[in-house]
Every structure is written in C-alpha cells, then in structure tokens.
UniProtKB/TrEMBL annotation:
<dbReference type="Pfam" id="PF05167">
    <property type="entry name" value="DUF711"/>
</dbReference>
<comment type="similarity">
    <text>Belongs to the UPF0210 family.</text>
</comment>
<dbReference type="InterPro" id="IPR007841">
    <property type="entry name" value="UPF0210"/>
</dbReference>
<comment type="subunit">
    <text>Homodimer.</text>
</comment>
<protein>
    <recommendedName>
        <fullName>UPF0210 protein AMQ84_01185</fullName>
    </recommendedName>
</protein>
Amino acid sequence: MISIVEVQETNKMIREMNLDVRTITMGISLMDCAHTDMRVFNQNVYDKITRSAEKLVKTGEDLERQFGVPIVNKRISVTPVSIAAGAVHTDTYVPVAEVLDKAAKEVGVNFIGGFSALVQKGCTKGDRILIDSIPEALAVTERVCSSVNVGSSRSGINMDAVKLMGDIILQTAERTKERDSIGCAKLVVFCNAVEDNPFMAGAFHGVGERECVINVGVSGPGVIKRALEEVKGHDFETLCETIKRTAFKVTRVGQLVAQEASKRLGVPFGIIDLSLAPTPLIGDSIAEIFQVMGLEEAGAPGTTAALAILNDNVKKGGVMASSYVGGLSGAFIPVSEDHGMIQAVQRGALTLEKLEAMTCVCSVGLDMIAIPGSTSKETIAGIIADEAAIGMVNNKTTAVRVIPVIGKEVGEMVEFGGLLGYAPVMAVNPFDCSGFVNRGGRIPAPIHSFKN
C-alpha cells in the first residue's frame, strides 16, 4: 500500500528538480475492429478509441491537482496497425492514420502510437502497405507516431526491411521538409521492441497485452543529479547506492499515479516505466549527471561506463519499488531533448560514433539525432543495421530515430519545439556502405538466441 506521505516526501523533487510523471499511456487493442471495408474499420477504430479514452485526459489532470505531481503527457498506444488492419482491402493505410489522429484530437491526448509493423522475420502484405504509407501518414497528421521493428535477438535482422527503412526515413524527411523534416521525429526503427512501452514515438499495444491497460512513464534526471551532488567525491559503491535509492523514490510516485489512474478509469494497471528521459530544460539533463559524476562533458572517456552505472542502478531501484516495472526503464540519450548533450556536440566532445558506443548500455539507442539532409538512404540503413546488431547481440532494445533535415548541413541548428527540443546537425561517416546494405536477406540470430 502506498501512502500519500511517500508522495509528499518528493515535493522538493517536483518543485526544484523537474521530477514529473512524463506520461500516462492507455494501451488499447484494436483486434476486434477488424473488417474488410476501410470505412467500417476506421469507424470501429474511432469509436473504440474515443470510448475507451474518453476520460483519460481529465483523470490525468485530476491526479495532478490531487497529488501535486506534474503529469506532462497523456497518450494512447494501439495494436500495430499492420496487424489490426490486415483484413482491409486497400493499398494504403493513410486513412487509418488520419482516423487515429482525429481520435487523438477528440480525446485530447498529445500523441497516439501504433502506426507500426513488426517485420523482424519478414513482411506480410499488411506490413508492406503500412511501411509504404509512413511518409504520407506522418506528413498529413499531427499526433500519430510510427515504429517498425526490424530485428530481434531471436529472429535476427531483416536487412530487406532495414534497407527499405533507410528510404522511408528520407521520404518522410522530404514530405515534411518545410517543418525541418519533423515527420522523422515521430518515426522509430527498433530491434527487440517491447509491447508495453509508454514512451513515444515507439509505443504500441502488443498482441500479448490485455484489452485495455494503463502504463505510466516516470522521469527524473534532475532528481538523480541533485542526489549525486550530495555524494561528490565518494566511491562507486556510494554512487550506485545513491542512484538506486533515488530511483526507488521516483518509481513510488509513478506507482501511486498508475494505481489511482487505473482505479478511476476502471482499466487494469500494466507497468511503470522508470526512464531518465531528459527535456531541454537546464537541470533536467543526462549529460549533467555525467558531469556530476566527474566527466567534463558527455562523450569524454568514461562516458559509456558512467551511462552503464546510471542505467543499471536506475533499473535496480525501480524493480524494488514496483512489482511491474516494464517498458524500457533506464536512461535515454536523445540529443535534441537534452541541452547538455547539445552542448557536448557543439564542443566536439560527442560524435555519432560515441553515441553508438553508449547505446550498448543505455535503454534505447540513437535518438532524436539531426543529420544532414544530403545523407544517402544507404548510409541511414547502415546506421540502422549497426544499432540493430547491438540490440540483437546484447539481447536488449535498441532504436534509431534520426532526422535527415532537408536543406541543412553539419553544424546548422534545427528547432523542433516543445519536448522535442533543438539540435545541431551532426556529421555522419562519409564512406559508402551500399554494397553491404544492398545484399538483402536476413542476418541470422546469434548463437546464444537458442535457449529452448
């Protein structure tokens, strides 16, 4: 049983350290919306989402007032559309994206995820229709987020899909070039995607989930930073214990909000995702945590070790605070959403290659990174393949959310606005990988995947 006293203990964290519940995400199954006629399917989808999430935003706002805990976003995730719409007779799922967008606006959520496909072993007809629909879908909607899972530790990496996604990302960038290619900020390519992730842009409601569920994502980089400032100069054991204890307290706040939201909405509680997801605000940065740990800048020697410490102990603290910790849970390193990371890039301390090394131990991957709009589709596919390989071999989730900003080159700044922040365009390796990417087929799963 969680008492209000535990939440009150964190008031200082909320007021001074940017602690927030980053999102309450309602997962909704669309499996019973299936129909061969697009109009009927879309009406079923709209009706189910608006009925299920009718009170989601108001409930979040009521909980904010009652507990004094900022709940920044209210979101929805749905069954991957390539599955839910698989029976529809069509050659495009853009109308489905438009209906998702309409439903999201109707209930007042800021994002809806699930315009997604799972193609780690190959594409169905529905998968291919969805992937081909992504550029237009993200161009004509405001709140729809898309993801494609191209690999897993069990299945290997679908390199045909990787190659295709390099092209799709560039098409999406071109379709939204008047807005600094922002469509790509709503598109994630995964390896080992999870079914209960409440964070966008990669959220979808997995087929192994319940009919409807509440997942909560909590974020507190500023809280961890302040706690570590109290133990400057202490040894690594003290450092790790401090992170664990602080993560425990942060997770308990999320647990209370999740349980209350579940109770009031009459929807089962799913998981708490304790993720250190930064914002562009000063004091809410993963890079600043590295500096408190003793690094001059993110990217300095020791950064990967520091991130490994942070990620591992956040998870340990979170698991002790809730029986149902899930999603991604750990440290995110999105460049555009972290002013400390942006500063490190501008100072030359942080490169794409160093970020890739850091993804071996973080909770996501290459996230919200602006690259030159002239980058080739083969190079983007190569970046995706590298990240997918890290995820596949290490049995962890990795992802790529890169934004080739049409018309901009290395060093120029891009403004995305809101939580998406701003970013300098980063350099990519100029050497060609097309001969590798164009081989096609599937990279087999690693030997340690055979565990039966």
